[in-house]
Amino acid sequence: MSDAFEPTIIAFCCKYCAYAAADLAGSMRLSYPSNIKISQVPCTGRVDIVHLLKAIEDGTDGVYVAGCMEGDCHFVSGNLKARKRVEYVKKTLTELGIEPERVEMYNLSSAMGPRFAEIAIDMTDRIRKLGPSPVRRQPRPVAATEQKEGER
Amino acid sequence: MDDLKSGSNLEKVLKAGHFAFTGECGPPKGANIAHLKEKFAHLKGMVDAVNLTDNQTAVVRLSSWAASAVMVQEGLEPNFQMVCRDRNRLAMQSDILGAYALGVRNMLCLSGDHQKFGNHPAAKNVYDIDSMQLISLVKKMRDDSKFMNDDPIDVPPRLFIGAAANPFAEPFDFRVYRMAKKIAAGADFIQTQCIYNMDRFRTFMKQAVDMGLTEKCHILAGVTPMKTVGMANYMSKSVPGMEVPESLIKRLKGAEKGKTAEEGIRFCLEQIEEFKTMEGIAGVHLMAIEWEHRVPEIAERAGLLPRPVIP
Amino acid sequence: MIVADRKSLSEIQDMVKNCRKILLVGCKGCVTVCNVGGLKEVQVLAATLRIAAKMADRPLIVAETVLERQCDPEYVEMLKPVVNDFDAVVSMACGVGPQFLAEAYPNQRFFPAVNTTFFGGAVAHGIWEERCAGCGTCVIHHFDGMCPVARCSKSLLNGPCGGSDHGKCEISKNVNCIWDRIVRKKVEQGRLDDLLDIIPAKNWQTARDGGPRQSRREELFQNG
């Protein structure tokens, strides 16, 4: 059954780096999983906690933020703010009993086309292993329900 | 002797110009009066008065006024400690009267350690008044026969008023001023924090003498013999406002095996010897924590025995 | 401003555990400024509660709104059309908010989503510190603009206790000793003698100790 699972992943990509890197990956004809849905942002500093949580609430299996290398943010510190927010959401997910690995922060530059593809592959693999988001897993199998309660 | 403020033994000893010697005792964590009396027995005749701590380090113990009353029964003179942490002005004034009625004649006014350190960190603290205001309050009760609100007192508490000074805590610039303030507020005697850094203490005392403070108030130098190197390290690092010079720690470390405590006592005796002749010092306050049984030996070796008996 | 911290998710979940439809109400006053109960925080808490409900296969509707201020009947009034459509209302304002709401809508239940902590300000982005204890009789003019009532752990008015250590309070290395700062400033300004005056015992009647307080301005108050 898990073989059939194709996760939905949202990537918030900064237009100055990750989004450009995605373009580069495309022109380099590097393949990366089609599970990734890219959302371009003017800076990862624009990505708020609530955006990440909304994605999870809507049943997205994984979410990541891809910003510039630390120290290279076009707006000085947007990527650092994004990292803090990702950390906050990881904590919230842990409290909710959701794997915090479903949310991640990455840093790369516009020249890193191959790195963009690698991140997409890594994240897809990671989420595939975790399985569908517990938010969207409805109706949930009885066994899974028991396990969840047992964990608490 | 009617010019005495309280008529306490400590007051008489100091007034007569003797080098005073006071001790300290922590009440039990329980109502074990028998054990408390054993501790008292070690101190009897060895010191002029004994401080009884008031929930020291914010750990609940038998009340300092009750322990003081037991001490009176045992024929020793208590120095009743009161902190501002646990009582408001109503409780303070009633406990001052109560302690006096039970025979207490000396009282030490303190701010108190914050309850965060103690065994009831969830407690609400009081700090209705501070230690300076407490000194003024006791003085007003004694000298003016009035409560804080100016109501008259029927039989005022004649207490010899003490205060603490810490010459080593920061901000150092202010420490002698703070002592001056306590003296102006009405302190008759001062007991200092444990002294280890003699250089700094000499500087502090010189300031006190220059400001004329030692004319107005009796200053007792605080000492605590180090028992172990661990204790020295702990005091140096973990006790706020305590300064232990590296040279003393080295000296303790250099002591022969099993002789660390002896080295600690020797250092303490050397200090006492210097205090005897230091300008402005009227005596020594020995805080031998849980070491009451060693007090007679220290008193003997320091040449402080016999204690003067003044009718 | 009034500073607050959000209650833990589990505490809030416990309050609303029997509810199927709740309203989260933020406040655009102090709690927006200290990033705990404004629009954004309402959205975050709402999303979090909805995720939790989905995880538990539990139906829960979480509606979101923000009032201009919850400490003003004029704005509290604005909830009127919707307030009784919910099983309970969770206020993200300071402790004043849920009480004003409860007074205005006696048939509804109101829960606090934050712990109100102190009067203070931001010393850095994301760090707030206490500055005022609301004692009702300001004394900071004696201390060059620093309040020992609020900022000394023991509210000492006559100088630092023996626990002042390298500018820090004895209770924690993360707490500044305000008396250390007061003394330093007096030394810098050559006015250390100011601190020799003994400040008498404070009259706490103007503080909470005198009972719950009311502030009355006759020139504003309209009878009837």
Description:
The complex is a heterotrimer of chains A (152), B (311) and C (224). Chain A has helices at 18-27, 49-57, 78-96, 113-130, 142-151; strands at 9-14, 36-41, 62-67, 103-107. Chain A is α/β, with parallel strands linked by helices and 152 residues long. In chain A, strands 2-1-3-4 form a 4-stranded parallel beta sheet, sandwiched between helices. The model of chain A is unreliable at 140-152 (pLDDT under 50). Chain B has 12 helices and 8 strands. Chain B starts with 8 loop residues before the first helix and ends in a 10-residue tail after the last helix. Chain B has helices at residues 9-15, 33-43, 64-73, 89-101, 131-143, 172-185, 198-210, 213-216, 229-238, 246-253, 260-277, 295-301; strands at 20-25, 49-52, 78-83, 106-110, 160-165, 189-194, 218-223, 281-286. Helices cover 25% and strands 22% of the residues of chain C. The model of chain C has no long low-confidence stretch (mean pLDDT 96). Classes of the chains: A alpha/beta (152), B alpha/beta (311), C alpha/beta (224). Chains B and C meet through α5 and α6 of B and α7 of C.
